[in-house]
Amino acid sequence: MAITAKPKAGVWAVLWDLLTTVDHKKIGLMYTATAFFAFALAGVFSLLIRTQLAVPNNQFLTGEQYNQILTLHGATMLFFFIIQAGLTGFGNFVVPLMLGARDVALPRVNAFSYWAFLGAIVLALMSYFFPGGAPSVGWTFYYPFSAQSGSGVDFYLAAILLLGFSSLLGNANFVATIYNLRAQGMSLWKMPIYVWSVFAASVLNLFSLAGLTAATLLVLLERKIGLSWFNPAVGGDPVLFQQFFWFYSHPTVYVMLLPYLGILAEVASTFARKPLFGYRQMVWAQMGIVVLGTMVWAHHMFTVGESTLFQIAFAFFTALIAVPTGVKLFNIIGTLWGGKLQMKTPLYWVLGFIFNFLLGGITGVMLSMTPLDYQFHDSYFVVAHFHNVLMAGSGFGAFAGLYYWWPKMTGRMYDERLGRLHFWLFLVGYLLTFLPQYALGYLGMPRRYYTYNADIAGWPELNLLSTIGAYILGLGGLVWIYTMWKSLRSGPKAPDNPWGGYTLEWLTASPPKAHNFDVKLPTEFPSERPLYDWKKKGVELKPEDPAHIHLPNSSFWPFYSAATLFAFFVAVAALPVPNVWMWVFLALFAYGLVRWALEDEYSHPVEHHTVTGKSNAWMGMAWFIVSEVGLFAILIAGYLYLRLSGAATPPEERPALWLALLNTFLLVSSSFTVHFAHHDLRRGRFNPFRFGLLVTIILGVLFFLVQSWEFYQFYHHSSWQENLWTAAFFTIVGLHGLHVVIGGFGLILAYLQALRGKITLHNHGTLEAASMYWHLVDAVWLVIVTIFYVW
């Protein structure tokens, strides 16, 4: 019987499929395509920058235009390309395959994360079309410049908050997937090194993102409603902004690096035809980077006037983190040493990385030396070092991953000659662009200057060389785009395992089918290279019973929810706060979450079996809570600093303790009621369960009403624009109130599911997540009562 060819889907059918998909592979492809588009766009911005600096006293761009392009270049390259390509792009596509899973732990949350990420990019770029233009404050948006600049800063800050929400959900999803959905028999120590690198980067991001969120939120609050922690006029400390910002923004350098170190190790092992050298040491080095990465942020602040002891401590840890980073570099070199190297395009990028990243690492150790940092701070030496690490480091790693997994992702091979030409143009262009910038730093050229005089020795010649190098990079970019286009259009069909790899993604078709694996995976994993081990032992792979394959349904509501949240942030950025549109879009967002919660995730009941025995919702929320604890911790630490230094003095009339104690009774009582409601569900007592959940919601509403009345009264007695303690009170207590609303809404969703009969003994993920979040809200409130009402 002849098999009829499946008709080609139309444009609208493809678009609808992308809008509603929850397939980790399609989401990974969208992340990857969007991230590399951001790279290309940031590359265009960099060519404009280098064109302006090619000759002295150039008028190609005005100073304001230069600053806008510089800001968008940095933000687009860092937030939208480097972090995303290696972590959420390749990670979404490859990690479930490497683990032998059908999908990620939370597929619909994964889809929401992507659309929120895309919304953040649009939000940052659309500022160009509003009065005031794009932000011109640099990607670091230092205070007070960011508080006094044009409206483009509002869009940039809103984009960072939306991106942060996307990142936290994505990171928690990765960790939950790695803990819960590994193939039976695959222990943590048998996972591929790339999975370990995604795990390490996700954990680090969950711990540190609070710093960026705090800095962004506080600057946005000052711009919109005049609430400030940093304004010296009311006792604030501008340096506190730097503490918050760099607490995230240096650890994120390792978030930008760790996934690529994993990719490079996978590529090195495959093309050297040998196991990874020092697998366990490499894992420990990655986790060492996670720990030490949170201890080095203040080396960006050596010149702000902190104490000598402060500078010595951070100089020590900055130099120390070179040790685990060096271990990983030696692991890659040791893997290549003595191997039968197959000189394919991905391996070229590995070799280019080793040389260039070593140069970036050495100059990083130089900058850890405080006296040298005084000389080079804010000079082109730092620009060159930064690009050595992230362009020739992470950027080369991104292209190694792209060329390595391209056949698996697209089902097409590419022209090796074009791939190698792309590499050589990038390598030569990179060296010619950034090596002269080290010399410019020695000669004293500051970063972010949009022009310079012709009579400064060495500057015109070195800048011209750097610009020529940038155009060679641009030519390499055109070759790259042509290589990918040619492959998609006419490239040979890729075999399932074109490189002879030994991790599980090479067991699938190219591109993989919707259910990933046609075979039932063995339960023995002797090493992190299962395909090699099984072949050596002669293990026969048997077909999987189709009845055991369960895939989640497509859903429109993750896209809808992300779109309405994006619209909410547009209203916040573009209009005075509060405004009616932000409330409208917030209501539409809530409607989307209700529809999401009431929609069946699977077409028939499915009982999930996880490695840990905990549900995916429980595991995802547990790790998401890590980030929430971090946010409150960093804000409370900042408040304690301001309070203990005497800057934040409580006003004579402050919120009454008896009201706080009343709210404590309400909130603690609600924690008990939700706990007992959960226990009733586990015993199969559905009516008491629903009643207990309803009582919890009512107690939460009463708490919110009491606190709203308290806020209304206190607002008329003390101004957050004039009193620093009042500003801190409204920020932290108000943020907690927002968490009460979020947690209460989660409980309402669980209650609606209970009324619809969608919560069962074995399927109550929404309730688990919401109740865990509610307990967090209670615990944070006890700390708040102590530091604001009692003290």
Automatic annotation (TrEMBL):
Pfam families from the UniProt entry: COX1, COX3
Transmembrane recorded as keyword: yes
Matches recorded under PROSITE patterns: COX1, COX1_CUB, COX3
Topology within the bilayer: Multi-pass membrane protein
Transmembrane spans: 28-49, 69-99, 111-130, 155-181, 193-221, 283-302, 308-327, 347-369, 389-406, 418-444, 464-485, 556-574, 580-598, 618-641, 656-677, 689-709, 729-752, 773-790
UniProt keyword Cell division, yes or no: no
Entry's Gene Ontology molecular function annotations: cytochrome-c oxidase activity; heme binding; metal ion binding
Gene Ontology CC: one annotated term: plasma membrane
Annotated GO biological process: electron transport coupled proton transport; oxidative phosphorylation; respiratory electron transport chain
Pathway named in the protein's UniProt entry: Energy metabolism; oxidative phosphorylation
Top-rank taxon, per record: Bacteria
UniProt KW keywords: Cell membrane, Copper, Electron transport, Heme, Iron, Membrane, Metal-binding, Respiratory chain, Translocase, Transmembrane, Transmembrane helix, Transport
EC class: translocase
Reaction it catalyzes: 4 Fe(II)-[cytochrome c] + O2 + 8 H(+)(in) = 4 Fe(III)-[cytochrome c] + 2 H2O + 4 H(+)(out)
Subcellular location, record wording: Cell membrane
Alphabetical list of SUPFAM superfamilies matching this protein: Cytochrome c oxidase subunit I-like, Cytochrome c oxidase subunit III-like
Similarity section: Belongs to the heme-copper respiratory oxidase family.
Record-given protein name: cytochrome-c oxidase
Organism of this sequence: Thermus thermophilus
